[in-house]
Amino acid sequence: MTDIAQTIDAANKEAVRRILSSEPVLIGVVRASEALPRLKAGTILHAGPPISWERMCGPMRGAVTGIAVFEGWASDLDDAERKAAAGAFTFEPNHHYDCVGPMTGMTTSSQMLMVVQNKTFGNLAYCAINEGLGKVMRFGGNDREVLDRIRWLTDVLGPALDAAIKDMGGIPLKAVIARGLTMGDEMHQRNVACSSLLLRQLAPALARTAKDNETLAKCLTFIGANDQFFLNVAMAMGKAMTDPARGIAGSSMVTAMCRNGTDFGIRVSGTGDQWFTAPVEMPKGLYFPGYSEADANPDMGDSAIVETIGLGGFAMGAAPAVVGFIGAGNASEAAVFTRAMGEICLADNPEWTIPSMDYKGVPTGIDIRLVVETGLMPTINTGVAHKKPGVGQVGAGVVKAPRGCFEQALVAFAATMGVKA
Amino acid sequence: MTDIAQTIDAANKEAVRRILSSEPVLIGVVRASEALPRLKAGTILHAGPPISWERMCGPMRGAVTGIAVFEGWASDLDDAERKAAAGAFTFEPNHHYDCVGPMTGMTTSSQMLMVVQNKTFGNLAYCAINEGLGKVMRFGGNDREVLDRIRWLTDVLGPALDAAIKDMGGIPLKAVIARGLTMGDEMHQRNVACSSLLLRQLAPALARTAKDNETLAKCLTFIGANDQFFLNVAMAMGKAMTDPARGIAGSSMVTAMCRNGTDFGIRVSGTGDQWFTAPVEMPKGLYFPGYSEADANPDMGDSAIVETIGLGGFAMGAAPAVVGFIGAGNASEAAVFTRAMGEICLADNPEWTIPSMDYKGVPTGIDIRLVVETGLMPTINTGVAHKKPGVGQVGAGVVKAPRGCFEQALVAFAATMGVKA
After folding, report:
1. In the 8-state DSSP scheme, what is residue B259?
2. Among A332, A338, A354, which would you mutate to test the B interface (most chain B Cβ atoms within 10 Å of its Cβ)?
3. Residue A297: is its pLDDT beyond 80?
4. Which residues belong to CATH 3.90.1710.10 in chain A?
5. Residue A324 pLDDT
6. For residue A323, what is the nearest residue in chain B, using CA coordinates?
7. Mean pLDDT of successive 10-residue segments in chain B (421 residues)?
């Protein structure tokens, strides 16, 4: 092994160690303005790498106008659109504020954010509360119903969850994931087990801390009716687990993958906080009745952070039922995806295992060298938004991270090692 | 095909149709004395086919003395034992009273029983509330802690559950099972998904109907801490689904399998309510730390009713994680058990399918002819009790139904068809 290869090997070992030794704990729900003093009124955080209003896709624009009305920064959607085009709002990636958000991923100062602390390293990560399915802001929805729901999450469910989580002294998440993998979840397009397990833990504490039982019943009903409730928890967890692995000189491991509906962006440990971007691809999948690929917006959201820690498409072997939902082939072949992702990863996670694969650990720590060398692109399980603002989710599918990101990253990474491409 | 074979074929089609067209709904929780007017004070219903005190195994005796003290029919365990030996109590099988019970399966007049109604046929079936794990009466436990817990189930949780279930207008169970099969449950030794899904449905109604939030939190905690909570619901459902298939002339389908710790008993549709019994076998499995097969009581409980409707050992393919828990081999080979049980069953259930087997339905309707012909005995996933009274659960494993039951049943069945063995 050359000196350089040894250096990279040691750096990657450390990067993987930081992910695997993480102890993510859901510790509360907090208003964004309190948690993130840098986040000012008029600033809108979005999913994916940086993007301007001009280059934003339809559902992202729909969400931006909706959240501006929600925050009172615009009188209506038309006013919000005019202001956005006139530069009245500042747009920044969630990832620049310790945040992540699914699909459009709107984060603004009034919203309540779930907080995951990585107890091993002390760092915090944030994600808003999942809104449920259908016409919701993360898929570009922005009408009164959508805004009223976010208001309720902010005013009612967020504070109730915070009280319950604090009453419990926090909820350690690694064990929830370990269990969910034995129950058919991959924590991206299938979170029914983890959502149920979380509710089971939360319910007694919600009862103990409830102000009135009508509200309590409404909170329990909302969580119980949303099989994807846990997704946003898994995302904050992913961010909390990958952040400590950022900036390790010599490491070729991916620390973030995200999409804004226009560009796909990745970060690599050894190249710090630089984004490597390429155009997003179109998911291949299944559409809800009445919709087709012609209606679909390309790939979007910070949710690929779950693939970055070995879940989602990487843990497909644990979730045969998701294969049909996302139109990826025969359920009995779910393990094929996990085995393929093992080819581009640095380790298996010994704490997160897949029973039907005789307890093989989920493949963890994407090495950009292996991606470029094998040509196997990371597989991401994703929801699909309508390409027009205001419509919502139209399907779900599988999408590949674009090769361009990894090629650019490899060139930049090589340069940090003193190697010219 | 001979005339007799055609007759049997038609009768079995009808028997299977009755199982598959069943619509089991959990409709409430009721005191045994109200639900079962025939059940008098001094009568103790037990798991399995009929048995006298003299032939009862240790844990069954332990449970009998415990429940007699609980009911106030004896001053203490010694007194209960003397009275039992002196013939003071009447012993009858749960199955003779539309009931089922796991392991020792004690059912007496003061207990609260969950009620499942088969909406297609109108019949009702009953099972007590699951007590949790460890030292519990169904595994022969009988001390103060065990009796206090049953008192709480009777006085607090039972009425709370009844109010919640009635508030919801009942809980249809087929959809819960269908979902649980996609989440790694086989509903005998693994009920974590169904228990969580049930709690998720119940929680808002429990909140709406709660008298005080301290009690509510305690109820939610109890259900949430018990991964086997759903087992007793699945059992009452199994009884509700198989009962309408009893007594179809010419049907060679099994309508019940159960064990009292001494004898294994089966009923066959075409031979009505006659029991065919043979000595129970010893489960092969894994023991909790400090215990071994030397401590184990042989096979026990009415819970094999879930195998009778295609779940438990028959649905092993859905539950790779259970394979290790019961010591049955490699998790990746879970489907082997389901395929083998398919060899002795009349149909696959199109509504209860296994994703990892490309949505093959669980094998349903055991044909005694196929069992005797193939020599493949029904596989049952079971808990293992200590052979002494008062100890509790010591492990879990796989056990086979004994061949003798099926051979006797076949002879008797043949006689009903005018065929001499």
Report:
1. E
2. A332
3. yes
4. 22-235
5. 87
6. B355
7. 92 98 98 97 98 97 97 98 98 98 98 98 98 91 95 98 98 98 98 98 97 95 97 98 98 98 98 98 93 94 98 97 90 96 98 97 98 98 93 93 98 94 60
Of B121, B150, B118, B128, the C-alpha closest to B27 is B118
Cβ-based neighbour number of residue B249 at 10 Å: 14
The CATH homologous superfamily for domain B23-235 is Enterococcus faecalis V583 domain (3.90.1710.10)
Nearest to B224 among A204, A218, A324 (CB): A204
Structure tokens given for A152: 């309720």
What is the C-alpha separation between B217 and A216, in angstroms, rounded? 12
The token pair that represents A294 in the structure block: 């012609």
CB B221 to CB A199 under 8 A? no
The ipTM value here is 0.93
Could you tell me what percent of chain A has a pLDDT over 90?
96
Task: Outline which parts of chain A fall under CATH 3.90.1700.10.
Answer: 246-416
Given CA atoms B328, B332, B338, B343 in this order, what sign does their dihedral have?
negative
Q: Quick check: helix, strand or coil at residue A283?
A: coil
Rg, C-alpha atoms of chain A: 20
Q: Do A183 and B203 touch (CB under 8 A)?
A: no
**pLDDT grade for A133, boundaries at 50, 70 and 90:** confident
Interface test with A, best of B168, B186, B196 (most A CBs within 10 A): B196
Mutate: best of B216, B229, B333, partner A, most A CBs <10 A: B216
Task: Give pLDDT, residue A421.
Answer: 60
Measured between alpha carbons, how far is B164 from B61 in angstroms, rounded to an integer?
35
CB nearest to A183's CB, from B184, B221, B357 = B184
Mean local confidence (pLDDT), A198-220: 96
Distance separating alpha carbons of residues A26 and A125, to the nearest angstrom: 10
CATH of domain B246-416: 3.90.1700.10
CATH 3.90.1710.10 domain position(s) in chain B: 23-235
List of chain B residues whose C-beta atoms are within 8 Å of the C-beta of residue A216: 207
Distance separating alpha carbons of residues A130 and A108, to the nearest angstrom: 15
Contact B213/A207, CB-based, under 8 Å? yes
Q: φ and ψ at B99, to 5 degrees?
A: -115, 165
**B229-243 per-residue burial string, b: 16 or more CB within 10 A, e: under 16:** bbbbbbbbbbbbbbb
Distances (CA, A) of A242 to A13, A38, A121, A125: 14, 22, 11, 10
Residues whose CB falls within 8 Å of the CB of residue A82, separated by 6 or more in sequence, listed in order? none
Residue B421 is predicted with a pLDDT of 60
Looking at every residue in chain B, the average pLDDT score rounds to 97
- A217 interaction partners in chain B (CB closer than 8 Å): 204-205, 207-208
Check if CATH label 3.90.1710.10 holds for domain A22-235. Answer: yes
> Nearest residue on chain A to B206, judged by CA atoms?
A217
What pLDDT is recorded for position B302? 98
Interface of A with B (CB under 8 A): 179, 182-184, 192-193, 196-197, 199-201, 203-205, 207-208, 210, 213-214, 216-218, 220-221, 224, 320-321, 323-324, 330-332, 334, 355-359
Size of interface A-B (CB pairs under 8 A): 105
pTM of the model: 0.96
Contacts of A339 in chain B (CB under 8 A): none
The average pLDDT across A19-39 equals 98
On average, the pLDDT of chain A sits at 97
Residue B368: the pLDDT is 98
- What is the average per-residue pLDDT within A187-201? 98
CB atoms B210 and A205 under 8 Å: no
- Is B250 strand, coil or helix? coil
